[in-house]
Amino acid sequence: MHTPTQLQAILEEAIKQIVYPTHPNNLYEPIKYIMSLGGKRIRPVMVLMATELFTENVKSALDVALAIETFHNFTLVHDDIMDNAPLRRGKQTVHEKWGVNNAILSGDVMMVESNKHLSKVAISVLKPVLDTFNATAQGVCEGQQLDMEFEQRSDVSIAEYIEMIRLKTAVLLGGAMKLGAIVGGANETESALLYKFGENLGVAFQLQDDILDVYGNPEKFGKQVGGDIIANKKTFLHLKALALAQGDEAICLTATDLAQEEKIQAVTALYDKYDIQNLANNEMDKYLSVANKALADLPVSESKKEQFTTLVQQILERDK
Predict the structure, then answer these.
(1) pLDDT number for residue 87
(2) Element (DSSP H or E) covering residue 87
(3) What is the DSSP letter of 58?
């Protein structure tokens, strides 16, 4: 079994070997650019790890892993446009560098490139691979739509929020695991357990992201602490505090007339009063427990599962 780090190295080399057309330049240069910005490549690594549970030929899933990574970066290009984000991984976003219209079109082509990668899998698994990928991609788009709609609503429930992050974030991790399992030759039960593992890990990951936005070390977390608070994002912490706050306490959660630092301090104080951090940690642990149970139920040797512990640590220890 390869380690996640070794699989990352395999993926980086494979990404470098992708040959895109050279004309029109402004269509394909943005794709090369966003794909070269790096990151931990967690989602395609999950594809390869799932495959390696069932076959030693890990490279049989390399094209599926590249499809997942290309699709993920496609969503980042379009998400950055919707969020008007200036930076991605410390570099200019595609729409800042090439303009919004070029970024939209380059993102569209990335979806085509994802399907070109998928078309290279063995014909015996092509249909289930395509079915799983399409369901995953559609779910991600549904989650993004819900996230945008939540910005205009004042009555979002915690259950709705969990469903939104399941779609926007978690189904891609679950889909990556299931795709790798299918290519590796897993049966439906095994594939379903790996999907369950990835999906619940994805929900835990996003809940941790909510927590780190308030309580994380900005140098290790890689984002501005309090960014969700400033943007009035309806995170788990925000919604839980809204439900527990008494009287006028909740006013600070949606206030727009406070200076940024003042707002962060006021909201954080409210979170501290109602122990929101621990409540969010408990919620995260609930989903992590379901993920670990799915992995434990997977009928493969324990030695083959060891690298998944390393993967979970990589995903959930971002501030340590």
Answers:
(1) 86
(2) strand 87-88
(3) G
Q: Which residue has the tokens 């980086």?
A: 12
| Region of 153 on the Ramachandran plot (φ > 0 left; ψ -120 to 50 alpha; else beta) | beta
Name the pLDDT band for 298 (thresholds 50, 70, 90): very high
In 3D space, the residue among 68, 25, 54 whose CA is nearest the CA of residue 188 turns out to be: 54
213/236 Cα distance (integer angstroms): 11
pLDDT digits over 219-256, tens only? 665 556 788 999 899 999 999 999 999 989 999 998 98
Q: Which domains does the chain have, with CATH numbers?
A: 1-166 (1.10.600.10), 187-304 (1.10.600.10)
List pLDDT tens digits, range 38-60: 888 999 999 999 999 999 999 99
Please say whether the beta carbons of 72 and 35 come within 8 A: no
Helical ranges in the chain per DSSP H: 4-17, 25-35, 42-52, 62-83, 94-98, 100-118, 123-150, 158-165, 171-184, 188-215, 218-221, 227-230, 236-244, 251-254, 260-273, 276-297, 302-316
With a CB cutoff of 8 Å and minimum separation 6, the contacts of 232 are 238, 253, 254, 256
The Cα–Cα gap between 226 and 151 comes to 17
Side chain identity at residue 33, one-letter code:
Y
Specify the DSSP element, H or E, that contains 92. Answer: strand 91-92
247, 248, 249, 255: CA torsion to nearest 10:
150
Q: From residue 264, how far is each of 219, 224, 245 by CA, in Å?
A: 18, 11, 16
Instruction: Give me the count of residues in the chain.
Output: 320
Strand-pair partners of 87 = 92
Distance CA 219, CA 318 (A): 10
Task: Indicate if the alpha-carbon torsion angle 304, 305, 310, 314 is positive or negative.
Answer: positive
